[in-house]
Amino acid sequence: MAKDGEITGVDVRVEPGRLKMTSNHRMDAGQASLQPIARDRASKRKRTTITRWLFAALAVATFAGATAVSAQGKAAQTLDVSARNAVGGECAFTPNPTSTLYSCALYTVPAGKLLIVRTVGFRVAGGTSPVPMNVLFGRFNGLGLFMGSPRTYSFAIPPPSIAGSFAIYAANHLTEFVLDENDRLDGSMEFNAAPALLTVLTFSGYTIDK
Q: Strands 152-155 and 132-139, how do they pair?
């Protein structure tokens, strides 16, 4: 028999045609009063967990959306490959006993086009002296190529490969600069003394419609 203030548990009995449940577990009133609190705390934990999952899902969706926008922005700036025309060229100089500078015209941009230069290169062969000091590629300004001029760029010259008294300087540089229609792409190599050595300057890139 349950005493005053106690709540009995559950007893399961099978009777013909039905399942009958009766109480036989004893629980005092203090324990019973804690059950709603426990249930409320469990419900709060469940709601907190659901809220966290919702915020996580929202963050993932936001990140995915930002990535998609970024990808679309890049795609909008992509050049039409079918409209590109690959171009390239080179110029060569024989040793000059009186000059320390070689300069040449590599390419003139056709009307209605833009030239995107992607690589420039050079090869210098000769004795260990004189030494190449500066190589420039860029837009011919009517006088020549000069450091600091608009659309004129300087590139590094690596140490030479030396065999006895023979030296070779060679390099190819990946770059990207643009020349406008009717601009002329020039290249130049400057040495520290005359005579300037046998030199080859090269470039490659492509033209697109302006």
A: antiparallel
* Whether the predicted pLDDT of 111 surpasses 80: yes
Supply 26's token pair.
Answer: 């004893």
Give yes or no for residue 58 having a pLDDT over 70. Answer: no
Cα distances from 53 to residues 15, 40, 58, 59, in angstroms, run 46, 20, 9, 10
Question: What pLDDT was estimated at residue 107?
Answer: 97
The pLDDT assigned to 39 comes to 59
Q: Answer whether 199's CB lies under 8 Å from 96's CB.
A: no
pTM: 0.59
5-30 mean pLDDT = 48
